[in-house]
Each structure stands twice: as structure tokens, then as C-alpha cells.
Amino acid sequence: MKMLEEKKARFMDLLTQGEMVFAPCVWDCYSVKAAEMCGFKAALLAGTPAAASLTGTPDLGLMTGDELIGLTERVASFASIPILVDFDEGYGDSPLNTYRNVTRLVNAGAQGFTLDDGMGIRGCTRMGTVKPGEHPYELVSREHFKAKLKAALEAIRGTDCVLIARTEVRVNDGFEEAIYRMKMAEDLGAHMTMINNVRGIEEARHVAETCKGWKMYPDIVSHNGKTDAELDELLELNFNLVTMHFFERAAISAMIRHGRENFRNGNTVYSDTFDTGLTKEELAEIGGMNGHRWLEWEKRFYED
What we know:
Blueprint: H1 11-16, E1 21-26, H2 29-38, E2 43-45, H3 47-55, H4 65-78, E3 83-86, H5 95-107, E4 112-116, H6 142-155, E5 162-167, H7 170-173, H8 175-188, E6 192-195, H9 201-208, E7 214-217, E8 222-223, E9 226-227, H10 231-236, E10 239-244, H11 247-265, H12 269-273, H13 280-286, H14 291-298
Parallel strand pairs: 1-2, 1-10, 2-3, 3-4, 4-5, 5-6, 6-7, 7-10
Antiparallel strand pairs: 8-9
Helix pairs in contact: 4-5, 5-6, 6-8
């Protein structure tokens, strides 16, 4: 629960101001706090770390919509930056499911969300253990996807929540079908589009030839120490939301490193003397999520 007086920044405002929104993937209040302290202006509540931390399962549709919406409410009510949500297929095959669940997601505090053309079945075919053509990834038709997008747009009517239409169709039917579906979504009124597995600036340019509006570049990565795309180049092509996964690996590797040292030594000397590189003020802000500030705030209720 936030008790801050300042107004939270709006994701839509960042986009209309022409900013590049560079957002890390998060899964709880601690990871959001880290994102805030690093200077990021938004964060994406991503399926893979959310499922792993909340349910101990992979991102295969095992986490329920109720679990994700509940997590969104907790994280968004805490965060001082806009929270976007990886909402997969909307947690139901019917446009009515989409309408109801998107309404709940917005009420939970999401300022933007992805909605894709997949289905709840996200098993071995999505993870690449079945050869292409043997059993294609379960996707909905163009018409069904259009109906779900229209339902999502109706659910956010009158709000400034951003619909990010996402397609997974490239793995089944190729790049051009993916571009077609995103142009279709753009024409329907989706605020932003995203083709999963777009990689590199040349593919980004190809998408931008057809999709002229706001676009999301999914999960920027590096190879041999070189990034697959530069942010300024992407922004010129209207890819103004770029996400990335790194907090998960940073968090688990640090916990294991400290845990092994403390377990071996039988004490916490290693952790207590470890140079975090943070200032005293930053450590205080994280410690107990700043319990002193909450106690000072509580005193107001005892004042006459």
C-alpha cells in the first residue's frame, strides 16, 4: 500500500511525450523497488518471473488469471512508476473473457497490457520441443483475434490504459502474417503492437514499413557482448517501448552466492561486510521498505 502524496506518472503520458520507455521485467514489490531506484520510468510484470515466483511453475499457462490480477494489484498499488502486464491471451478464449478480465486488470492498476493471439494451451509446442509442422502452436484465427482486441478496447474505453496487441503467429505462419495481424490491430485502434521474436534492427525496419504507430520491441538481448538493437535506432522506427529480462538472473545469482558463503562459514559475515555499492540513504529506503517512514506517517493518526 502506498502512502505517498505525489501523483504516479502515467504510461500514456510518457508515450505521448515521445519518450523511449526502457522497462525491465519484474515480478514483485522488491524487484519494482530496484527498478525505481535504477531510474527506470516503467516496468513490465512479466509472465516468466511472475509464474516462477508466485507459483513455482514455468510460463506455460499454469498461473491463473486470478493469480496474475491479484499480483498486479499488489505490485501496482506499491509502485511509483507505471506497471505494464504480460496478459497473454487474456485468460480465456471468448471475447467475453477478455472483456471481463481486462476490466479487472485495469481496476487492479495496470497502465498497459499485452494481449496476444495464442490460447491457454502453451506447452511443448511453444517451448520448441516439437518440430515445426508436427504440432503447431495453438493460435486463434484472424477473426477471433480481432474480436478479442475489440473486447479489450471496449474494456479500457474512457481510461488511459494502453493496449499492446501482440502476435505469436510468426512461429506458425511466418513473418508476413505476423505483420498483417499487427496492421489489423493498429487499424482497430490498438495503441501499440508487438511481434514476438522480432530480432535486430533490420527486422524492426521491415515491421515499421507497414506498422506506423507505436511498437514494442520485446526483450532486447545481446550476443557476444553486442546488443541486437540500439535504442535510438528503435525510437526512430516508433519502437518506443523496449523491455528486457535481467533482474531474475541478478537476484537468484546474488542470493545463491551469498547463501553459499554464509552456509559454508556458518555466519553472515560475508553478507554483512559485502560492499553493495548503495548509499546509506538507499539502504535505508530498502530496509523494511522504509519502516521508519511508515511509523512517522502512523503518528498522524494519534495527533489531535
